[in-house]
Amino acid sequence: MFLGGTLALGTNAAVLSAQNTRASTGVLYGPLRDTVIFRTLGFIQSVVCPSGTLFPKRNRKSGRKRSGTGNTINRTFKSTLFIMLFEDKNNLLELYNAMTGKHYSDPELLKINTLKNAIYMSMRNDLSFLIDGRLSLYEHQSTYNPNLPLRFLFYISQLYSGMTKNENLYGTAAVKLPPPEFVIFYNGEKEMPERMVRKLSDLYTFKTEEIRLELETVMLNISGDNNVPLKEACRTLRDYAVYTDKIREYTKTMELEEAVQLAIRECLSEGILKEFLEKHRAEAKEMSIFEYNQERHMMQEREAAWNEGRAVGEKEGREAGRREGLREGLREGLQKGIHDVVRNMIQQGLSDEQIISYCNITSEELENYKQG
Question: Domain of life of the organism in this record (predicted)?
Fold first, then answer.
C-alpha cells in the first residue's frame, strides 16, 4: 500500500482559493467573499466579516470579472502522455488499487474531477478523482519541483470551492469534505529518493512552534528500479515507466524524434503499452516530443540561471575581495603609522603616560611597539 500526502488545518486556519482570491486587496470572493486575508510580521491572518459588508456582489449581468484582480486565465493546456493514459478509468482504477491495496473492479465508481475549465496562474492539475469517500490528487513530474505542496494547495482549494458552491458556509451545520491525498509520480533524469515527503511548511519563511496550515505530499520515484512492487501491481504505470526510460536512454545517442520513434517501435514489439500505442501512436509521439523538449528547456533555463548567478557571485566576490584588501591595507598602514609615531615619541624622551594619552593606545600595545 502506498499512502499519499494529506492536508491539515490548524485552529482558525483558512484555505485560499486561487480562483477566488483578490490578491491586490486580500479579499476572497465566492464562498469566502467576506473573509479578509492580510499579512503581518510574516504571518498570513484571516478575519471573517458579516456577509456582504465588504464589497458589493459581482456584476452578474455582464458576466465579466472585476478588473485588477490579478488573476490571469490560461485556457490552453498541452496534455501529457501520463494524463492521457490515466484519464482512462480502467487504468486509473488499476493505479488506485495498486496505491491503496484495494481491489475495486468497477471503474464507474471513479468520479474524475480534474480541473479543466478555468486554469489560473498557468497551472492545471494532472488528475483528481473521488472514490471510496476520498479525494485523490495525482501529479506527474519529470523535473523535481519543491513547490508542489503550494500548487496542491491551490488545486485542493479550487476543488473544495467547487464542491461546496451550493452549501451554506455561514450556517450552523458543518459542511463535510472528502479527505485528500496528494501523490507525485516522478520519472526524471535526476537521481531522487524512492519515496520523499514534502510539506507546505517546508516553504514557510521561518519555522513556528505550531503549524496552523499544513499540506503533506508524497513523491514516488517510478524510474528505473525504483518502486518495483508498485509497478508490478499496476502494469500501466510499469509500461509507462519503461517507455519513458527508453526515450531518455536513446536521446543520449540520437535525436529526440528518432529516439521517440525507436521507443514506440520497441514497445509495440515487446507488448508495452501495446493497445494504447496502436490506437494513439501519432498522439503519443507528439506528446513525448513536446514533453522532452519542455523538460530540456526547463533544464536549460535553470542552467542559464545558475550560470548567471555564479557570474554575479564571482563578480561580487571579486569586489568584496578588493574592498577587504583595501580595508586590510588601511589597517596595516594605520598600524605602521602609529608604530612610527610611537618610536619617534620614545626617541624624543616622552613618558609612557604621555605616549599612551597622545596615541590613544594601551600600555600593552605600547610595550609591543617598543619590542617591535
Answer: Bacteria
Greater confidence (366 vs 133) lies with 133
What is the grid cell recorded at 86?
Answer: 490515466
| C-alpha gyration radius of the chain | 31
Surface-to-core class of residue 291, CB atoms within 10 Å of its CB (0-12 exposed, 13-18 middle, 19+ buried): buried
**The sheet that has 21-22: what strands, in order across it?**
21-22, 27-28, 35-40, 43-48
**pLDDT tens per residue across span 289-299:** 888 777 665 55
pTM exceeds cut of 0.90: no
Q: Is 360 left (phi over 0), alpha (psi -120 to 50) or beta?
A: left
On the 0-12 / 13-18 / 19+ scale of CB atoms within 10 A, 343 is middle
Strands 213-221 and 7-9: antiparallel
Check: CB of residue 356 under 8 Å from CB of residue 335. Answer: no
pLDDT tens for 351-371 read 777 777 667 778 777 787 777
- Please provide the DSSP assignment of 4-73 as one string: -B-EEE-TT--PPPTTTEETTTTEE-GGGTTEEEEEETTEEEEEE--TTSSSPPP-TTT-PPPTT----B
DSSP of 126-146: SEEEEETTEEEEEEEESS--T
For cell 600600555, the residue is: 363
Q: Are 31 and 171 in contact (CB under 8 A)?
A: no
- CA 127: distance to chain centroid? 17
Secondary structure (3-state) at 183: strand
pLDDT digits (tens, 9 = 90+) for 33-58: 444 444 544 555 555 554 444 444 44
What interhelical angle do 274-347 and 235-250 show, nearest 10?
60
